[in-house]
What does this fold into?
Amino acid sequence: MSYVMNTYNRYKLEFVKGEGSYLFDREGNRYLDFASGIAVTNLGHSNSEISKVICEQSKKLLHTSNLYKIPFQEELAEIISKKSFGGKVFFCNSGAEANEAAIKLARIYGNRKYEGVKYKIVTMTNSFHGRTLATLSATGQDKVKKGFEPTLDFFVSVPFNNYDALYEVVKNEDVVAVMLEPIQGEGGIIAANRTYLQKVRELCNRMDVLLIFDEVQTGVGRTGYLFAYQIYGIEPDIMTLAKGLGNGIPIGAMIANDRFATYFTPGTHASTFGGNYLACAVGKKVLELMDDQLLDDVKKKGVYFKQKLKKIFDDRGEVRGEGLLIGVSLKGVKNTDFIDECHNEHLLCVPAGDNVVRLYPPLIVSYEEIDECIKKLKNVIERLWG
It folds into this structure.
């Protein structure tokens, strides 16, 4: 009997330690981890430099609350701001919390500047933004909303990559923000079209609508760019981060340019644990390690991996993604069955919408480990398709 609330369909796997790209179970079996905790352990398991920061900081100070200045928080915010589009940073503990902060900032902007006339937030069909009441309301998937109706009614979902559908909603002048993922993760590794995003940016500028990029899954190097928006040659007004920012330590961040950040003042938003000493010390180290060489390697490894995947899947699946944010939309086989077979090969991967198997190796993965993954996938393909 388990006393843990039953909110997950868990696999019958249990791990006791990790090293780099591998996890180990109680029997000592080694699993190649191409899930990375769902794009979290980007720098690998038991990373020595991250572990050193955790140990050293835990001996000094973990938490004081945000009633006092936190030097690491100031330093991490400066790094994020200077490496992105400038502005100010709010720290929290997860992607859902970061998206909540973005939603609240958009709403307070609409209420303060436009006296509530601008209040709607447009999101994309097939999107995923979290499991809190506001973020599941924002999510463009009905399945996550079941049982929680009525959800918040100021969210409107339109088809992704369809500018005309977006314009039809935004032209009514009651929209305060457009919120989207540059590459939809849970939706099936669906990338935004470059021309579409550029037109969305122009529309938001023209209509004084905030452009929010949810980079919880795409951010912190996963695409071979520090932030996925950098692929498209435009900047959002607000960006949300989490997952890879802490390499396993819970941390989230919402970054807003100065024009909008000023609408958050003392008392408008807060987090008890957000941006504490431990989380920010780790986040700072993560971004220090996420240098140009590592990002360039991610791009190269992503090209290598995708070429290999296209060859072995052929017409059995469509390979998608950027950098090491990779998915394969399967044809003729359920992704859940495919993942079960991968487990038999001691390979870990993650399902997503559109019958996709997500392959998210750590960003420090070696070419030899990519080849090992390909060999395991070949075995699965042979068993399932013959």
Observations:
- DSSP finds twelve helices and 17 strands in the chain.
- The mean pLDDT is 97.
- Residues 50-289 form a domain with the Aspartate Aminotransferase; domain 2 fold (CATH 3.40.640.10).
